[in-house]
Amino acid sequence: MSSRPAAVGCTPRPTRSSSAIPSALGAAVLLGLARLARQRLPRDRATWGRLVVAAFFCNALPFFLFGVGEQTVDSGVAGVLNATAPLWSLLIGIAIGTERGLHPVRLGGLLLGFAGTLLIFAPWHEAGLLSWGALAMLGAAASYALAFAYMGRRLTGKGTAPIALSAAQLLTATGLSALALPAGGTAPMDLNPMAAIAVAILGIFGTGLTFYLNYRLIADEGATSAATVGYLLPIVSVALGAIVLDEKLGLRVIAGMVVVLAGVGMTRWRKRPPSPSAAERAHPPVRPSSAPASGRT
What is the pLDDT of residues 26-54, one digit of tens each? Predict the structure, then answer.
């Protein structure tokens, strides 16, 4: 989704500083919200150690790989490769045993969502599908999926409130990105007022608030379901392009959006428990009384 703000305001150079800024802004927003909600950051070393691992695979590494890949890969190919994250998440879930009971309807939804993404971006019309840049972006998507699985197993549900946990991870990601600055240089972005607004929106909403919602999804729905949200990003991106940039929507793109929505809807399918029969509803079983005996003879 970050490509749209960049298109509106600037053409940032893919340096490590461009990944540190959104993380820092997002961390600042979440730290403020955590303070308002009276949620404390983790205080034990074990949790912070896990946050370093999660921040590396969910923030620092994919941000860097996307920056490398976007130098040689067209936007359509980039969108499709980014949309492989749910499929990577599915494979990792099967490997670690969290997706063994995956229903065929949900599996079909994951595949259908990816097919819709292919229709939207049509990567066969663009160059760069077989390149080092494409490999880097594929690695970024796999890194996201690996991080989601790790966060679901080692961070969520361990006693730290979600806003504070999200703030702590973005704070850690900012530190990792800052440590990498000397290795990659600090060439400034070509910012103008619109670009500054775009970067601020990306940091506050696209990184901070979205990251908190992502943590909630991982905790409530699981890593694969959280990764499935990535299928919706092309729809939002295309819609913003039509509204903000006056881009035209062709029949292929509209069809792809419909297919994506259908696929995401299928991934939300859950097997319902069997409903009671008519006889059971008419004559519910009588529970034995738990009242103590009166003691009369």
Answer: 899 999 999 999 999 998 999 999 999 99
pLDDT band at 247 (very low <50, low <70, confident <90, very high): confident
Q: Which residues contact 32 (CB under 8 A, 6 or more apart)?
A: none
Q: Which of 2, 4, 6, 10 is nearest to 192 (CA)?
A: 10
The residues near 106 (Cβ < 8 Å, ≥ 6 apart) are 266, 267, 269
User: Tokens at residue 158, please?
Assistant: 């361990």
Query: What CA–CA distance (Å, rounded) separates 24 from 203?
Result: 7
What pTM value is reported for the model? 0.74
Tokens encoding 142:
């796999």
Contact 207, 55 (CB under 8 A): no
> Distance between CA 268 and CA 229 in Å, rounded?
11
Q: How far apart are CA 42 and CA 127, in angstroms?
A: 45
Q: What is the pLDDT of residues 191-240, one digit of tens each?
A: 677 777 877 887 788 788 888 888 888 888 888 888 888 788 778 878 87
Token pair recorded at residue 40: 């404390």
* Backbone φ, ψ for residue 41 (5° rounding): -70, 160
